[in-house]
Inverse folding.
């Protein structure tokens, strides 16, 4: 019997306590434990955004983001990798069918990592491109067999023509272990290096068609899921684990506060009214972040299901709320950390301290640049022409 979206979500929730127990192991390994990836794969999580033509569920995107939130509450690093690796089937679904056949034809459980920054040297050649370069921050790349790698194509005069994403098999690149960070230590976001690799044209996809939502894969995969805007899907993919991490910190803080005793004031922290206020403020910020993220994705998905266009007001609102979701989540964890006591600063399994490190590391992702995203909303509100690829 074919697994349903809700079956996957239920299985992820059941797995969450095990992922929480492995959080320290992920930090020690500097990558998600193999057992966690195996367990997540068995829940069907990595098939949520994969096309039905290749054994996936092409699920309601809100189911995917809810699952990511559950995972991130348990382990921030695992939630981050699950979100990033889990969204890539959505992108691959936009490629030419030949590319999809190469990725999933023999193994529908093939996973893909990415490094989208166009840091490579690209040369157009007959039948495709030759690429060389070193790409950074490829989260979860040790657990994948393909990579999506960014590259800038220029004309004969060196003028930029298009940003492409090249789909490259593991045999054509190598991974350099460089990931050693304060937060999100378990994501294994290592570097990928490729030397003069040929990429056939069908495994290269320009950002223009992706932004216009007119890609070869749309003719192969008619599900409404693939009509969502790239910017909304991918930026929400970055903010969701951060919100989940913040929720996990809140849960951990509340549990610890029930037992804490503050010697300097001679009272249980649970009796401190100022702690009560912090708990309330943090909870409200986390709820606000989550409610806006899910409202926007839900509104977009309902529109594409009905075959309607997506107005610019909705796109700019989604970017506005996505960056502010990250900002609120980070602020909530900061608020809790300030009152978590000196013991929270000791190295060890303290969930608030780990979350504090994780959310600040995730905040540094390019998708979380608040001024850029908020400016787009302001331009739209004033009726100005908006020119930005991340809408």
């Amino acid at each position: 019997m074919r697994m349903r979206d809700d079956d996957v979500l239920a299985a992820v929730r059941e797995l969450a306590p095990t992922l929480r127990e492995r959080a320290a192991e992920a930090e020690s390994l500097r990558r998600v434990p193999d057992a966690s990836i195996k367990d997540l794969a068995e829940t069907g999580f990595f098939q949520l955004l994969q096309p039905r033509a290749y054994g996936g569920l092409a699920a309601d995107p809100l189911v995917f983001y809810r699952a990511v939130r559950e995972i991130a509450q348990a382990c921030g690093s695992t939630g981050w990798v699950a979100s990033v690796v889990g969204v890539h089937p959505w992108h691959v679904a936009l490629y030419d069918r030949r590319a999809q056949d190469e990725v999933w034809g023999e193994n529908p459980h093939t996973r893909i990592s990415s490094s989208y920054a166009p840091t490579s040297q690209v040369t157009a050649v007959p039948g495709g491109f030759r690429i060389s370069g070193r790409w950074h921050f490829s989260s979860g790349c040790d657990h994948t067999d393909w990579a999506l790698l960014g590259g800038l194509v220029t004309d004969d005069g060196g003028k930029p023509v298009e940003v492409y994403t090249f789909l490259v098999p593991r045999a054509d690149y190598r991974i350099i272990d460089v990931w050693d960070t304060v937060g999100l230590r378990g994501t294994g976001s290592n570097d990928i290096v490729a030397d003069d690799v040929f990429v056939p044209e069908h495994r290269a996809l320009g950002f223009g068609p992706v932004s216009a939502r007119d890609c070869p894969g749309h003719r192969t995969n008619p599900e409404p899921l693939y009509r969502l805007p790239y910017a909304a899907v991918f930026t929400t993919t970055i903010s969701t684990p951060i919100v989940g991490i913040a929720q996990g910190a809140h849960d951990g803080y509340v549990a610890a506060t029930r037992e804490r005793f503050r010697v300097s004031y001679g009272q249980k922290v649970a009796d401190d009214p100022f702690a009560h206020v912090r708990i309330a403020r943090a909870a409200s910020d986390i709820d606000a972040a989550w409610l806006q993220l899910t409202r926007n994705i839900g509104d977009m998905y309902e529109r594409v299901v009905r075959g309607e266009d997506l107005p610019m007001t909705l796109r700019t609102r989604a970017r506005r709320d996505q960056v502010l979701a990250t900002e609120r989540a980070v602020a909530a964890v900061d608020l809790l950390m300030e009152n978590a006591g000196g013991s929270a600063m000791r190295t060890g399994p303290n969930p608030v301290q780990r979350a504090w490190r994780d959310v600040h590391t995730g905040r540094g992702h390019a998708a979380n640049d608040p001024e850029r995203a908020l400016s787009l909303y302001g331009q739209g509100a004033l009726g100005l022409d908006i020119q930005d690829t991340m809408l």
Observations:
- The first strand starts at residue 112 and ends at 115.
- The chain has three domains: 5-109, 112-206, 228-381.
- The longest helix spans residues 273-305.
